[in-house]
Amino acid sequence: MKSYMLSFSFALLAFFGMSNEDQLGTSGDHLDLDAVMELFKKSDSIEEFEQELNSEKNGVNNLDLNQDGFVDYIRVIDYADGDVHALTLQVPYSDTESQDIAVIEIEKSGDEVVNAQIIGDETLYGKDYIIEPQVDSKTVNVYHWRPIRHIYSPSYVIWVSPWRYNRCPNWYRPWRPVVWSVYRTRHVRYHVHYRRVKIYRCRRAHGHYYKHKVHSHTFKAKHVHHPVNKQKAVNKKSTKTHITKNHTKSHTKSQAKRPSVKPTQKKATKTSPNRQVRSTPKNPARSNKSNRSSKSGRRR
Q1: DSSP of 23-43, one letter per residue?
Q2: Where are the domains of the chain?
Q3: Which of 17, 82, 255, 276 to pair with 195, CA 20 to 30 A apart?
Q4: CA 198 to centroid of chain Cα atoms
């Protein structure tokens, strides 16, 4: 009964805590990076992590980049350089192209101090989508995580997934993806253990990863959608309104300051009643002709 009530409470939390603002509007909505980090934390090795990531029972992977109706297999490649590791999550998109999904950057900053962050690829998550573990709003030292102890052990062999496009392990069974609203409710509970930040804590690992970064041009051309940052859109709209108002105000002020110009009226010429004003004839030729005819009439 207690477990039932706990499950029911999680379901209510997931339902009421879900909003459209959490939705990116891109393919990244179907791989929750908080849930990926939780899965990584509980794995004993990188190989096991890849296996758990591609297991339907965990429900973490819901990606279908090529839109064939089945969830894609995600392989893991460790680009290592000394004590720096960049665990790259990658989907073989076709025989010739692959697409990076995210990278778990791991870097030592002391003898027993290790930082870890997962960064979503900009094509799927937007720019600077960085997730890190946190406790009471403080960064977590992941040195004691099982997979971290594994990769820093002397017996560790750098993991490079051997699987390719349409060539997956025998245990793998592809499954149908679910809609976002259903997928979201399964992983919202992990969000309290992780947070989104804007700081790259593993700079050496980040720089090393960029040397190996892979994109599929076909995926980018066909399936990428550019999410609209609502805050930026609101700011842009308010800025536009502000500019319009300022322009209207300045226009009104300039109209107020500008002196009104009245049409000039010709002053009427004052003439004495006894004085005759000779008007200049518009057509001198016609005027001369009429004068001659009048003179000839007088002679007759």
Answers
A1: --SSGGGGB-HHHHHHHHHT-
A2: 2-225
A3: 82
A4: 14
